[in-house]
Predict the 3D structure of the following.
Amino acid sequence: MTLPEMMVSVGVGSLVLMIMAVVFTSSARSFAALGHYVSMDRNSRAALDRMSREIRQAGDLIEFSPTRLKFVSYEQTNSFLVYNWDATSRELTEWKTGQATTNILLNECDDLAFKMSRVSLAPTTVVAEGKAIKVNWKCSRTILGKKSTSEDMGQALIIIRNKAI
């Protein structure tokens, strides 16, 4: 082999290896993103199922803000159900009277907002008029050092069944 042939073969080999590295990195990022999406979707569904079940079974809504809900338990006066979103920790938590620990329903949640509606589904800020709770959230994760939104939005409308109209 001559030196020019050797240089051409090394150059071609380096180009092939570089293309393979780019394809591998892109595939790894896509695979990680898909895994994160599946995980976040599962967590969102579990949080929504739990919130829906608990809010429907709760009694009256006694405290409302865009980041916090507080319900009194059905037919009990000293038992509460509280949902709270903390922007600093990026977590949605659930707490019930009598539980020693707080349940983390969602983590890595960039934005979350509760909205309250009347029976007619018109928005309201008066706690006594609230019959339905709308919840919207947006979560994201870091994938291979780059922040990526793996789930754009989770949202639901939950009717408070045990609240008198």
The mean pLDDT is 87. Residues 3-159 form one domain. The chain has one helix and nine strands.
